[in-house]
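Fold Annotation — chain and its backbone
Next Lines — sequence and tokenised fold

***
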Amino acid sequence: MKSTLKLKTIDDIERELSIIVVCEKKQKADITLSQVYDFLAESIELSIQRIGSATKRNTINKILGKYKFAKLLSKGSYTKANQIPGFPLKDLGDAESALLRLKTSLTAFKLHSGPFADHPVFGELDKKQWERIHGILAAFLFGYIQLYGDDKLRFAKDREQKKEKAFADKKQHQHHHQQKKKDDRDTKPSGHNSRKWKNKKKPHNKGNKNQGSGGGLR
């Protein structure tokens, strides 16, 4: 299902999922929520669990896989010519369980540092690359869900996110300013003392010099 939604990270997927959960919705085409949730969860699970042995890939397949991966990233979405193999899964009829499975898989992916499974088409991928794949897949799958009242909710969430970012930036700026003031205080005493020492030393030298010349006159 073609979608204008752009999801680049796991956090993006979680935010979109939180909107889907609270909005009124219905499915586009003959695809249920549980099928959407289960398929995305399965894809994420397979990327971190390394189920099955890696398929041996010759040089041509490796090059072709990298080319297809780069093409998908440049396009940013799946097209009719490049649909998802194996979707949809059989409808298990339990959207709540499928949603819980998806949330669990998203958390597991965020906590997982490696290793990661090979993609059946694109080959070996690292965490960042898998994250982009999951984001594109999620945008494709969520395109099967028609939401109502989501525009107002998105505006509220965007505003909340901007406030949180502004607060974090302000806090970081204050910390940087306080650290700078502390560094300035740490460096000032030594320079101040050295200037005092120089000021004291000069009159003492001058006095010695005068005493020496006075002795010569006598």
User: Anything to note?
Assistant: The beta strands are 24-27, 145-148. The helical segments are 10-22, 33-49, 59-75, 95-111, 127-142, 150-217. The radius of gyration is 32 Å.
